Amino acid sequence: MAQEVVPEAPASPESPAEQPPVDATAPADSVVSTQAEAPPAEDTPSPEANDPEGEAAADDASPTEDVAGDSEDVAGDSETTEDSAPAEALPPSDLPAEGLAVPAYEPPAPEGAAETVTDETDEAPPQDEGDTIRYSGYLPGYRRHFDFGLSPQVPGVGALPGGMTPGYGAPVPPNEWTFSFAGFMNVSMEASLDRRVDPADGQHDGVTNVKPRTLDTYDAFTSVSAVPGNWVSMRFRYGTSKVSANFSFDTYNISSPASFYQMGAQFFINNAYMEYNPSRLGDLGLSFRAGRINLAYGQMGQYGGGMYTNAITAKVQGVGLTTLADLPLNGKWELVGEHNLMTSRDGTIPYNVVRDANNGWRRPLWEGSFINGLHLGFNVKGDPRLEFRVRQMIEFASDDRVDQPYDDISTRSTDERNVPDAIFNIYGADFKVIDQTFGVLGLGASYSLASGVFPLRGVFSYGGNGEELTERYLGQPSMGNGDLLVLAANYAVSIGKLVSYPAQFDGNGRDLRLNTAFQYTRIGSDFEDFNGKQRYKMGLDLEYALFKYMSIATRVDRVTPDTRESGQTFAVLAPRLMFRTGWFSRMNFQVMYAKWFFGKTTRPEGSGERSPDTLDDEMFALNMNMWW
Predict the structure, then answer these.
(1) Is the peptide bond between 211 and the residue preceding it cis, with omega within 30 degrees of 0?
(2) Which residues have C-beta within 8 Å of that of residue 156, sequence separation ≥ 6?
(3) Are 22 and 65 in contact (CB under 8 A)?
(4) Residue 331: which CATH number?
(5) pLDDT reading at 246 higher than 90
(6) Domain that residue 525 falls in
(7) Does any domain span residue 552?
(8) Which pairing describes strands 570-579 and 370-380: parallel, antiparallel, or unpaired?
(9) Are 343 and 94 in contact (CB under 8 A)?
(10) 508 within 8 A of 583, measured Cβ to Cβ
(11) What is the pTM (predicted TM-score) of this model?
C-alpha cells in the first residue's frame, strides 16, 4: 500500500515530501521518532491506522502519508486513504434520511412472541429494555454508562437553551455531517561541536554550529534519517460517510513562513480534495478523490517507509482524480485497484520570471506535466495479512513555451533552444507480510526509464524528481536520459512477541524492538562516468523499552554511494534516549546523538547550488514529537 505525504511524517527537515510528502499521500505517505513509524490517520494506501504508522492507518502512511473518517471501507493504496468502518457495521435500515432528526427508538417485539390481549385494568409494570439506542447523538441525558467524572477532553462550555448539554462522544448516525481533526508534530533542536583549524585572536578553539551541515539530506540516497528534523501536519475532515472535504496544513519550517536556507518551505494548505464513497455495487466498492493530493507508492513499512523514507516506486504531488476499488472474492481474498489521472501541482511559469529565494528558486524550464498511474493487486486477510501490488506510472510533458532563442548556461542538463519532450516511465512491485507475532516484512522493486526528464516535477521516483534524478543518479551531461533499478527490503519485529509466542504480548511491558533494512540501486546513463554505477545502504535499529517511561535505542547504518569508489563509503552511529508518558504513549521526547564516520572522498549528494562546502561529522539533538 502506498502513504499523504508524505508527504509520511518525514524524518528529516530539509525537504517537503512525504511528503513523511510523505502521500496524501505523506506519505505518509506517510510518519514519528526517526525510527518508529507513526500510527496512521489514513488507511492505505495512507501513515492512514502516518499514527506513528498505527496512523490513522496509512500504509504506506506516511509516514507515511489525512484524517480517519467514517467512510466505507474501500481498499486504497495511497497514503491519503483513511480508516473506515466496514460496510456491514452500518446497517442502512437504522439510519434516517440525511438531514432529518433521529427518530425515537422503539424496540422490536421478540421473534415468535404470540400476541396477547391484556386487561387494561391489570396492566403489567413496564419492563426496562436496556440501553439500546444505537445512535444517540445529542439526546440530552443519554449515556451508555456512568462515570465518576468528566473526561479532561470535554469542552468547558455552557448549557444549551433549556439546560441541556450535548452528549460529547456519543455515537451519531454515520450519515450526519461531522468534523474531525488529526495531526502530527515533530520538532527538533539540532547543533554540533567542532574545532577551528587556525583560530585568530579573540576566537576559541571550539566552535558550535547551529544548524549542523550533514550528509543527511531528505530523500537523498546518502540520507539515513539520523537527523530528526521538523514537521508539523494538521489534517481536517468534514462530511459524512458518503462525501467529505479533506485538507491539511503542513510545514517543515515551523518558526516563520521562510528563512534564508528554507525559502518557500511553508506548505500551508498541502492537500485539499473531496472524497466521494458511493454505495457498493454488489460486492464492488468504489471511492473517488478529486483535488490536490500527495500520494506515495511502494512503502516498505506497515504504515510508512520503514527505516528509510524513500518510496520505492514513486511519490506524486498533483491535482486531479484518484479512483480506488476493492472486490472481495471470499472471506479472505480481495482484489484492489487504484488509478490516478493528474497534472503536476505547478504548471509552466512565464519565462521572464527571475528565479530567486522568494519563488523557491523555481525555473521557467520546469514544465507542467500530465501523470497517469495504475495500481493493481490483492490482499489476503487474516494473520498473517498479505498485500501485493504491481504498479505502472507515466509522467510526460510537451510544452512549446519552454523553447527559447538562447541556451541558459545555468541549466547544464538541458539546452533551452531545443527542449525535447519529456517522458518518465516507472514500473514497480511490492509485497508485504504483516504478522502480529513474527513482525512485518516488506519487499519492493522498481524500474524507472527516463527520457529528457530534467524539467519534470510532478512525480518523485526513488531518485527524486526529474532534476534530482539527473543530478544525483544520471549525471548532468546525460540531459536526463537513463534508467534506474531499485531493490529494497525492510523487516520490523518485536522480540517480546516472539519470546511470548504462542501467548499474546500486548506491548504493556519491557520489549526489544528491531528494525532493519537494505536498499540497492543500479544506474544506466547516457553519461559514461555514471553508467553502470551501483550503490547500496543497510541499517539496523534497536530499541529497548526499559521502563514504562523510558527506552534506550541506537541505530547504525553503512552507506556505499558508489561501489567503484570505496573512499565514498561512510557509516553512521546514532544512539538516543526516549522518554514518554506510558507504554502506549502518543508522544515522546528524545535526546539524540549522531556520529558520521566519513571515507576519504565522502561528499554531499548531487551538485545543487546550495550544497554545503563543509560537513559536520557529529550532531546533538533534542526531539519532541506527538501524534493525535
Answers:
(1) yes
(2) none
(3) yes
(4) 2.40.170.10
(5) yes
(6) 178-404+418-627
(7) yes
(8) unpaired
(9) no
(10) yes
(11) 0.72
